[in-house]
TrEMBL record:
Segments traversing the membrane: 43-61, 73-90, 96-114
Protein name, entry field: DUF2510 domain-containing protein
Every DUF2510 domain range: 8-37
Pfam families per record: DUF2510 (PF10708)
Lineage: Bacteria, Bacillati, Actinomycetota, Actinomycetes, Mycobacteriales
Record key words, sorted: Membrane, Transmembrane, Transmembrane helix
Length: 131
C-alpha cells in the first residue's frame, strides 16, 4: 500500500524550514520562498507607495486656470512627497525608493512649470489692463 500524495500547495522545504517549496501534485517545483511575514510587508509597502505616488503624479498634472489657481497641483505634489516619505521611513525596496524620488522630482518640476506659466499669464493680463 502506498502513502497518499499530499495535496498541491506550498510546503516547508526539508533542507531549510524557513523556506517553502511548491508541490504541484506530481513533483516539487519552483524556487524555495522564504516563509517570512517581512516579505509580505515589503510587498504591501511597495504596492502602496507605487499607488500613492502614481495618484499624486496624476493629481499634480491636472489642468489649472487663473481663476482656480494651482492648489490641486501642489496637493498632488504633497501626495507624491508623502508616498516618498513612506517609502523611506518604512524602508521599502531600493527600486521603490528610487522610483518614488524620481516621481517626486517630476511632480515638483511640473508644479514649478505650471506656476511659471501662470505667472506669465498674469503678467500678460496685467499689461493688457494697464494700457
Amino acid at each position: 500500500m502506498t502513502a497518499p500524495q499530499p495535496a498541491p500547495g506550498w510546503y516547508p522545504d526539508p533542507s531549510d524550514p524557513k523556506k517553502r517549496i511548491y508541490w504541484d501534485g506530481n513533483a516539487w517545483s519552483g524556487p524555495a520562498q522564504a516563509d517570512n511575514p517581512d516579505n509580505r510587508k515589503k510587498t504591501a509597502v511597495a504596492i502602496g507607495v507605487c499607488v500613492l505616488v502614481v495618484v499624486g503624479l496624476v493629481m499634480s498634472m491636472q489642468s489649472v486656470s487663473l481663476m482656480t489657481g494651482s492648489g490641486p497641483v501642489w496637493t498632488g505634489v504633497a501626495v507624491v512627497a508623502a508616498g516618498t516619505a513612506v517609502a523611506f521611513f518604512l524602508r521599502a525596496a531600493t527600486w521603490v525608493r528610487v522610483l518614488a524620488a524620481l516621481v517626486l522630482v517630476l511632480a515638483l518640476a511640473n508644479g514649478f512649470y505650471i506656476e511659471d506659466q501662470m505667472n506669465k499669464k498674469r503678467e500678460e493680463l496685467t499689461h493688457i489692463f494697464d494700457r
